[in-house]
Amino acid sequence: MLHRIAVPDVGITLVGGGGKRRAYFEAACRDLGGPFDSIGYKELAENHVRIQGRAVKLDTPEYRETDVGKALGMIGGYIGILKKLESVDAFYLNPPQAILTALNKKECKALLTSAGVPVTDAVETGASGFDALRDSMKQAGIKRIFIKPVNGSGAAGVCALGFGGKNTDAVCYIPALCKDGALYNLKKIKRYEGGACRAVIDALLKFDCVVERWHKKPVYNGFYYDVRAVWQFGKIDSVAVRGSKGFITNLHLNDCLLPTAEVLNKRDMDAIEDILERVHRAMPRLNSFGADIITGETPRVVEINGQGDHLYGDIFNDNLIYKNQVKYLALTKKENSHDGYRKKRKSRDGSNKRDS
Fold first, then answer.
1. In terms of domains, do 188 and 139 share one?
2. Do residues 172 and 157 touch, judged by C-beta distance below 8 A?
3. Which of 155, 184, 213 is the last residue of a domain?
4. Does 278 share its domain with 225?
């Protein structure tokens, strides 16, 4: 059980976030007896000094844009702000560059692969449209793949694609409406085949995307599932099993939560813990992260999310994920004077090197 602690006078600042993210992080600060404030990324971009010397959590920005292309453009602006924040002398839960490394799916997977962490297999195609992609997959003997925007989040643009069906040359599943060559996010998955599928893939490949093998997910009571595990400060804080009747599992799509104790056995949990420890060694500057993992005979990391800590099963109960973050920020900041932290950060970070 976490006890009330005295948060330093500099307090804790939440950047971004909104809705339940902000409400429950603020509740964690309040429960632990410390001051709290928040600021949006747009305001922070105009006034970096707002977080100077403060304990800071960089949360996800809020997007209400449904056009996938425009949303990815907004993420590009957010990336630019994070790059500028790397030079701001604040005490971060996760430093900007570590978040950026996790956000870039190509860079993150390459880093994990080089560290020997099992991940979903990347497929190099260089394709910029449906025809080239189909030809590349045929030559490689691959019939089923996933396509994702490199810096996408919240299931935006995530597409499951299969070639060579009985009645059509291709079929895809994506939580988006395809209209006039553009994609618009939906909260449900749509199926496209034939010419409609071609239009979806052509629209999606306008963006910088990663292509990966379609690894089979295990099934529980008719639900495909994978795991979102939150790792913080050297241990697992929470595990959620995400179930879906479709091929894409994501809590942004209102997927259901399956009973963890019934679905995952000790072997699964041991494998998850081992993978998370290896991810942390490969990305040591991420003090807190969410990992999407496919369990089974060969457990694999699907994605790492440097801000993937928002689990309803936790916040609606003891809210321990956020309380542990607040406790870490408060106690560590209290133990380090600002000058001491600046020297420590300069020594640790060198010339803003990426996780390696």
1. yes
2. no
3. 213
4. yes
Residue 65 DSSP SS3: coil
Three-state DSSP at 120 gives coil
Evaluate whether residue 193 is within a structural domain: yes
Please state at what angle helix 130-140 crosses helix 194-204, rounded to 10 degrees. 100
| CA distances in angstroms from 94 to 161, 180, 229, 284, listed in the order given | 34, 40, 17, 10
Amino acid at 273: E
pLDDT tens, residue by residue, 91-134: 999 999 999 999 999 999 999 999 999 999 999 888 899 999 99
**For residue 19, is it left (φ>0), alpha (ψ between -120 and 50) or beta?**
left
Contact status, residue 240 vs residue 313, Cβ threshold 8 Å? yes
β-bridge pairing 12-15 and 36-39: parallel
Whole-model pTM: value is 0.88
> In whole angstroms, what is the distance from residue 242 CA to residue 167 CA?
31
Shared domain check, 279 and 229: yes
